[in-house]
């Protein structure tokens, strides 16, 4: 017995080997079909089937290889990225030591800023102080000089007074000298005290 494929309904049934090449009624569709072995397909169909079998498989394999290659490529890139990220995290992950270092640096920086602030304040205070001192000294010098001027003026006044009193005495002396010279030169009176 051989396997036969109906040419009408394409269903497979069995027939005797003697009936090959003869016409027989299909068991399923009850139509007439030429009996030939199931494997014995027409010659013109073979290339298509062969092509489907060989080239199709090749193409499928090629596609699979390409997909595999792309998958490997993508996985490599992803894993490298993850690796570089993990290296980055290993290097710069904020560990306790790292945080402590940063905190210490920040503390030093803040202290330096504070020191600069304080020295600036001191400098500005010193400038203010020296300005006040300079002004005070200047005012003091002016006051001193004005006091001196007053004193000089008083002294000059006193000198003037003594000069005028001396002038008066001199006048009196001259008068008395004139009198005594006309009357008695021996009786020259002593000058009276002012
Ligand atoms: Zn049939």
Structure description:
By secondary structure, this protein is mainly alpha-helical. Among the domains are: about 1-40, no CATH class; about 50-95. The chain is built from two helices and four strands, in the order E-E-E-E-H-H. The strands form two sheets. The protein has a two-stranded antiparallel sheet with strand order 1-2. The longest helix has about 90 residues, at about 95-180. It is rod-shaped and about 210 Å long. The N and C termini lie far apart (about 185 Å). The model has no long low-confidence stretch (mean pLDDT about 80).
Q: What are the main properties of this structure?
A:
4 strands; 194 residues; rod-shaped; binds zinc ion
Give the C-alpha Rg: 70 Å
Q: Report the span from N to C terminus.
A: 185 Å
**How many helical elements?**
2
| Helix percent band | 55-70%
The largest sheet is:
2 strands, antiparallel
Low-confidence region ranges: none
The helix/strand series, from N terminus to C terminus, equals EEEEHH
Average of the residue pLDDT scores: 82
Beta percentage is 5-15%
Structural class from helices and strands? mainly alpha
Question: How many strand segments?
Answer: 4
3D shape:
rod-shaped
Please list the strands of the largest sheet in the order they lie side by side. 1-2
Small molecules bound in the structure, each named once:
zinc ion
């Amino acid at each position: 017995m051989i396997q036969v494929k109906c040419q009408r309904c394409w269903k497979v049934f069995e027939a005797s080997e003697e009936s090959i090449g003869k016409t027989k009624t299909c068991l399923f569709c009850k139509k007439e079909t030429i009996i030939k072995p199931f494997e014995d397909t027409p010659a013109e169909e073979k290339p298509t089937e062969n092509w489907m079998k060989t080239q199709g498989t090749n193409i499928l394999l090629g596609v699979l290889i390409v997909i595999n290659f792309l998958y490997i490529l993508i996985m490599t890139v992803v894993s490298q990225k993850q690796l570089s990220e993990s290296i980055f995290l290993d290097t710069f992950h904020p560990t306790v030591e790292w945080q402590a270092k940063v905190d210490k640096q920040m503390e030093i920086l803040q202290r330096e800023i504070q020191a600069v602030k304080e020295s600036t304040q001191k400098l500005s205070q010193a400038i203010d102080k020296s300005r006040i001192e300079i002004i005070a000294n200047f005012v003091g010098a002016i006051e001193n000089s004005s006091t001196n001027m007053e004193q000089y003026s008083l002294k000059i006044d006193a000198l003037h007074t003594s000069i005028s009193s001396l002038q008066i005495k001199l006048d009196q002396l001259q008068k008395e000298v004139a009198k005594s010279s006309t009357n008695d030169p021996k009786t020259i009176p002593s000058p009276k005290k002012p």
